[in-house]
Design brief:
Layout (H helix, E strand, L loop, with lengths): L3 H11 L4 E7 L5 H14 L4 E4 L10 H12 L4 H12 L7 E4 L2 H7 L1 H11 L3 E3 L14 H7 L3 E6 L5 H10 L4 E4 L15 H9 L5 E4 L5 H9 L4 E4 L1 H9 L4 H17 L4
Parallel strand pairs: 1-2, 1-8, 2-3, 3-4, 4-5, 5-6, 6-7
Helix pairs in contact: 2-4, 2-12, 3-11, 4-6, 5-6, 6-7, 8-9, 11-12
Length: 271
């Protein structure tokens, strides 16, 4: 049974720590560098990883992650490479919880059943499909059913103005963790996160999957604020990807800066 996320969150709770979860785009800027980036995230102390499958039209993402998607695709990387780089990382660390963010078209193009089978084989614990809402998971190729078949968690997004009825469904169906949006819009650090206290409280009271706050988080202070709202962790994506983008001409410096950033964000999760 898949329980890497559950085990990690229990361990962190026992240590009185929150989770820091960095997001990066797979195969950005290329396969080899991407694997080194993933290893660096581990070295910096990441508690779990959320990894993006590049897509040509990432509707939920801002310009930083959109450019990362384009770099990865320009390198010639394809879906097989995205699975393979995660499988290579699993040879380094068999315990780190790994989720992927992937758009529905990518899943459907491979075949929903085969996609989840390949995800499980690569060592992926959870899948988040941002462009399929909770109430469509079993009307759009049986995403949730295929996930269960291969013991892969389905991560759902909880928006800041979700109704209580919607949050009930999210608490019931989201597994691994619940991605709580701090605000509407697209990913990026330009607009700071909001305070979706009601959403976090509802997920916790209804024993939903661990609420992790994302969107607009880029500093250690943001991580502390996320935890103060009741979230059990924080996700930072654009800030991580921006470090990659700004140091493409010097990979050693990129990795050094990325490790230092991850370390500072992780430190903020400790009481």
């Amino acid at each position: 049974m898949n329980n890497r996320f559950e085990n990690r969150f229990k361990k962190l709770e026992a240590q009185n720590e929150g989770a820091f979860v960095p997001f990066v785009t797979l195969c950005d800027p290329d396969y080899k560098t991407s694997l080194e980036i993933l290893k660096t995230l581990l070295k910096g102390g990441a508690d779990a990883l959320e990894l993006g499958f590049p897509f040509s039209d990432p509707c939920a993402d801002g310009p930083v992650i959109e450019h990362a998607d384009k770099r990865a695709l320009r390198s010639g990387a394809v879906t097989d490479d995205f699975f393979n780089v995660i499988a290579d990382l699993r040879k380094v660390d068999s315990e780190i919880p790994i989720s992927i963010l992937v758009y529905a078209n990518v899943v459907v193009a491979r075949g929903v059943d085969k996609f989840y089978q390949d995800a499980a084989k690569a060592g992926i614990d959870a899948v988040l499909v941002p462009d399929i809402p909770c109430n469509m998971l079993n009307t759009s190729g049986d995403f949730e059913a295929c996930a269960k078949k291969y013991d892969v968690d389905t991560v759902l997004i909880a928006p800041p103005n979700a109704t209580d009825a919607m949050l009930d469904e999210i608490a019931k169906h989201s597994k691994g963790y619940t991605y709580v949006l701090s605000r509407y819009g697209i990913t990026g650090t330009e607009i700071e996160f909001g305070k979706p206290t009601r959403v976090i409280k509802h997920i916790l009271e209804h024993k939903g999957a661990t609420p992790i706050l994302g969107f607009g988080i880029s500093t250690p202070e943001h991580v502390k604020q996320a935890l103060s709202l009741g979230a059990k962790g924080a996700i930072a994506g654009s800030a991580c990807v921006k470090i990659i983008q700004d140091n493409l001409d010097n990979v050693p410096v990129m990795l050094e800066k990325l490790e230092a950033y991850i370390r500072s964000m992780k430190e903020a999760t400790k009481a």
